[in-house]
Amino acid sequence: MKNKQKYCIYIIDYFKSKPIELPKITILVDNGYHPDKLTQALEQIYPQIMTKIQFELSPKPSKAEKEANGKSGFVPVAARWVIERSNAWVERCKSLVKNFDRTLARANAKLKLYFIRLMLRRLANS
After folding, report:
1. Contact at 8 Å (CB) between 75 and 61?
2. Contact 58, 30 (CB under 8 A)
3. How many Å apart are CA 12 and CA 34, to the nearest integer?
4. For 12-37, what is each residue's pLDDT tens digit?
5. What's the pLDDT at 100?
């Protein structure tokens, strides 16, 4: 639990140091999340955070769109699917499954190195 609290503090510090003049960071969420509740919770921690981020709900395909494509049941949303696959790939890297890093910069660097390694392996196989 202490690691999660430290990680949250690093993330909030990142947003506090981000200049307001820069464009807002868009966070893509699916329909299982409630942006209003997330906004309220984040504003309790850091009131000015919504001047630096915005939430965007990923579009949910309608029944008509599913039928037009000849699909039914669960259909993954294209933008959201990229995020889910990336998370699944990260979980395969043992050192990234748990957050042992003391700084956000170090955790970010490890994540980038993992994806570089993943891309190099794929290039080598092709």
Report:
1. yes
2. yes
3. 20
4. 788 888 888 888 888 887 777 788 88
5. 67
**Using one digit for the tens of pLDDT, what is the confidence trace for 39-93?**
888 888 888 888 888 888 877 777 888 888 888 777 767 666 676 777 777 777 7
Half-sphere exposure of 57 (CA within 13 A, CB side): 10
| Cβ contact 55:27 at 8 Å | yes
What distance in Å separates the CA atoms of residue 119 and residue 125, rounded to the nearest whole number?
A: 10
pLDDT of residue 1: 47
Annotate 85-99 with b (16+ C-beta within 10 A) or e (fewer).
eeeeeeeeeeebeee
Closest CA to 21 of 47, 44, 52, 43: 52
DSSP code of 60?
P
Q: How many whole angstroms from its chain centre is CA 84? A: 9
Alpha carbon distance 119, 23 (integer Å): 29
Quote the tokens at residue 79. Answer: 């933008």
Q: Which of 56, 11, 13, 12 is nearest to 35 (CA)?
A: 56
pLDDT at 122: 85
